[in-house]
Amino acid sequence: MSRFEPNLRIPGPTALPPSVREAGSRQMINHRGPEFAALLGRIGDGMKPYFGTHGDVAILTCAGTGGLEAAVVNTLSPGDRVLGISIGAFGDRFAGIAEAYGAQVERMTAEWGWAAEPNEVRERLAAGGGDYRAVLVTHNETSTGVMNPVADLAAAIRETAPDALILVDTVSSLGAVPFEMDAWGCDVVVTGSQKAWMAAPGLAMVAASDRAWAAMETATMPRYYLDLRRHRAQLAKGETPWTPAVAVAFQVDEGLRLMAEETPAGVFARHEVCAAATQAGLEALGFRLFADPNHRSKTVTAAWIPDELDWKVVNGELKRRDLVLAGGQGKLAGKVFRVGHLGMVRLEDILGAIGTIEEVLAEQGRLAQPGAGVAAAERAAIEVEGGHQAAAAVLR
Ligand SMILES: *Cc1c(COP(=O)(O)O)cnc(C)c1O
């Protein structure tokens, strides 16, 4: 990132690496020609390891929400009984989509800031008789900065409601943290180009299990643009059914190339380091983090705005210094602020952000110990980095 660009620390859209920006400005190509077919193939193959699947990855031209809608309308029928596990604004949205199309949605909510508990899910499904058609799960709840234990939740669902399809929103986590769709038994998994993939908004990537593909043959919710069967049929010919966002596809392709160069393990480690640095830095500056410490997100951190802090003034000063943070969503508006640390994020971006917050707090006379935030962030980063190196040494 150049000094002349803002430090865009929101949980998507994320900043673009220079080569990704260049990729997006390429001349158009025929989207029904061999060059695009090769591109589509590279994106699908490149994404499979991040999904943890051997199945096809459909590339839809829409926002992440469109991908969630595709998960619902392709696999469910009006009247289907669905359990919507919601731990925040995006869990509510996923449940809302299923409701809009006529599913009979029962909501299971956790207090915002907490993850869903596998045991509670087990109890809830058992109490409901287990005959659910689907369970909706958010992997990373971007509104609260909480990451759900999807492997454990999926195991609990499989155990108590073996026939339920598990539909997972991984829009703000896939590509930043390990995920094993096939091994964990997830049925539809959805992500979006503007989060961890270092590309502009415009594409949603959706993978489905064999069970989910089978369910699509009998599901009766209306669908046309988002019909995944059409997407799969065209994919076999190296095409998408409708004109795709070609420029964004160029970008995702280049983003995947950069990620391969860094290696997935390197990408995941970088996200862990940046998350630890953000969280330690904010805490050292006196902020109370919103999320349960056991389930803090690796891609976004939410912190309470202290009562005595005039956030409008502080945020104005941050923006003047080219630091862009996200506010609270839904009922958290005005109560928390959020720092995104996914996609193209480096430790120096985080240290810069913490340093800027520190500077503004000092100016407002709200800092006991100047330098403590950046120092704590650096210490946390070194600790996590050290852990990774030790682990790598053991593996070697
Ligand atoms: C960003 C996000 C979405 C929605 O993505 P859009 O592209 O804005 O539709 C859905 N779920 C989660 C968890 C997200 O972070």
Trace the largest sheet across and list its strands.
2-10-9-8-5-3-4
Structural class: alpha/beta
**CATH hierarchy: architecture of the largest domain:** 3-Layer(aba) Sandwich
Q: H/E series, N to C?
A: EHHEHEHEHEEEHEHEEHHHHEHEEHH
Largest sheet: 7 strands, mixed
CATH superfamily of the largest domain: Type I PLP-dependent aspartate aminotransferase-like (Major domain)
Give the domain tally: 2
Ligands, deduplicated: pyridoxal-5'-phosphate
Helix content: 40-55%
CATH class of the largest domain: Alpha Beta
Portion in beta strands? 15-25%
Q: Low-confidence stretches at least 5 residues in length (pLDDT < 50)?
A: none
**Average residue pLDDT:** 96
Shape: globular
Count of alpha/pi helices: 14
CATH level-3 fold name of the largest domain: Aspartate Aminotransferase, domain 2
Cα-to-Cα separation, first versus last residue: 34 Å
Query: How large, in whole angstroms, is the Cα Rg?
Result: 21 Å
According to DSSP, the number of beta strands is 13
Structure description:
There is one protein chain. With 396 residues, the chain is α/β, with parallel strands linked by helices. It has two domains: 7-12 and 263-395, Aspartate Aminotransferase, domain 1, CATH 3.90.1150.10; 19-259, Aspartate Aminotransferase, domain 2. Helices cover 45% and strands 15% of the residues. The chain has helices at 18-24, 34-51, 64-75, 89-100, 118-127, 150-160, 181-184, 210-218, 228-235, 246-262, 264-284, 311-320, 347-363, 372-395, and strands spanning 7-9, 57-61, 81-86, 104-109, 134-138, 140-141, 146-147, 165-169, 188-192, 203-208, 300-304, 323-327, 336-340. A hairpin with an 8-residue loop joins strand 12 and strand 13 (336-340). Helix 11 packs parallel to helix 13. The longest helix has 24 residues, at 372-395. The radius of gyration is 21 Å and the shape is globular. The mean pLDDT is 96. It binds pyridoxal-5'-phosphate (PLP). Pyridoxal-5'-phosphate binds at residues 11-12, 63-65, 90, 138, 140, 142, 169, 171-172, 192, 201.
